[in-house]
Amino acid sequence: MAGTDSFPASADGPAGPVMDRDEVDRALARLDAEHEAVETSLLALQDHAGRRLLEGADLTGLTRERWAVADAAITRLWACFDAYAAALKTARAIRERRRWAGREDLVALTALLRGPGVTVADAAAGGPALAERFTLAELVARMNELYASSLDMVVAADAVWSALPARIDLLAAELHRTRTLAHQVGVRPGEHPSGDDLEDITAELAALRAEVISDPLAFWQPAAGSAAPGGGRPDTARYDRAARALEDVRREVEAVLAVRQDAEQRLVGLRDVLSRADRTLAEARTARGEVLAKIAASEVPAVSGPPTALQEQLAAAAEYRRHAQWHRLSPLLESLERRAEDELLRARESLTAVTAPLAVRAELRGRLDAYKAKVARHGLAEDLLLTERYDTARRMLWSAPCDLRAAEQAVLRYQQAAAELLVPRPYAPQDGAAGPGAGPAAGSAVGPEERA
To answer: Rounded to two decimals, what is the model's pTM?
Structure first.
């Protein structure tokens, strides 16, 4: 183009080379788009639920400090945006004065669009107004910085408020149900440890909720290495501890409630177990007397009497049930059930130990009779040596008191004699012919006198 419609690219102005019309139009189009994006973001921040809550909340601690900074940043952000919008409006007015901008307009537009011609006042509280000058690009960068820091704080606070108070309220409702049930079964503060735990959890949840509402940023964990606004998650450590503590109490209360429902059945079972233990001990005492009368040279352990402490605790358990003291009955029943089973096992072991000599005698008797039957099947029942040793062993085993050690030796001697006779003999000719070196009665049985 000729005349004032075109300028050399090297022509300089206050902001550097003077922009031509195309550069101005492109810059204005880009700045309009940035203006719209910034305005949309600012309006979204203004309407953000977290910002509204922060604006009306009675804040404390870290959140109060950071909100003071963020609130000032948001105010500054709007001031920057207003200055940006005013500069853009002025540039648009200059560009629209004529279709083909002259040099004077292009110089003015270059100064507006590229030069540090945008002034933003910053009135500090109680102090004089300060002013900063920016280019439009610097102003956009500044607004982005203020927006990111403000949004990060708002999003973090809103995330905590959205997550924790609702969960705390749900846990508090569960706490109320657990406390009601606990009181019904006698789990109360000062009377049962779980009752004291419920009081502690109640106080902790009330304090936690108040702190979350007034200082949400104290419960925020930023994500390591995250640059995005609101990167992180709510810190639920205290809530989780309270939830676990309540779950422990709830299980304890349910255990106590279960005791109330089946207390009578468990008490009957306990009485039955202890009765069986008493009968077993009585049987062991009777057996001990029998063993001492029938078995000689044997150590028989003493049998203790029934434990009176268990009977006393069983009576106390029945008393707790009558007075509906379920919180006291629950641990006592568990202890009694374990100890009653141990007592029954001890009684059975005592009976086994006492009757062991009788079991040994019975085993020896059975072994002796078994060998006698085996000898009889082989036609040796009339053997004099075997008969003599059998009679000796039988006399010892069927007499009282029985010397088990001597009887065992007698049975062994009978077994050995029987084993020797049951060994297969060498083959002998059927026609009675004597082989070389054979005696006059080869193959005949040896007489008892010779075997003795």
So the answer is: 0.53
